[in-house]
């Protein structure tokens, strides 16, 4: 079970900077999603990074759950899905989102529902392996175009972007299954 994950952050790395929202959605199950905003954990932030999310830092400081509450809720949500499958982390890019998510789970919960290393699947790498395309052809926009999913917006709202990623990966898996059953080569 692939759990599409998206984060918004107010800087380039966790610790000195904060993950300010977290969204998760299960590929193939649009009814299964999770979203939380998170109170910043430090005074430092990059105004340009913060602006990407459109979130108000002062509002987050006053109203968002603290990192321990938010990550415990996220951990419990992921673990509740074990009754239907084994959760596998999915992101685009997995390096960025995974860095924040794993650090926050380890720091504020003490463990990650995605395993000790927090490893998972990267959309671009998966697409390259599936199609044999080059890195420059593996951007999410190019994948969406190849799969006729151009109407899916990317809004920089972690919950909405996690749902977008779940839809894209569901289409990627469908494409893979159709190509295998038809005996077609995987390249586009």
From TrEMBL:
<keyword id="KW-0378">Hydrolase</keyword>
<dbReference type="InterPro" id="IPR036397">
    <property type="entry name" value="RNaseH_sf"/>
</dbReference>
<keyword id="KW-0269">Exonuclease</keyword>
<protein>
    <submittedName>
        <fullName>Exonuclease</fullName>
    </submittedName>
</protein>
<dbReference type="InterPro" id="IPR012337">
    <property type="entry name" value="RNaseH-like_sf"/>
</dbReference>
<keyword id="KW-0540">Nuclease</keyword>
<dbReference type="GO" id="GO:0004527">
    <property type="term" value="F:exonuclease activity"/>
</dbReference>
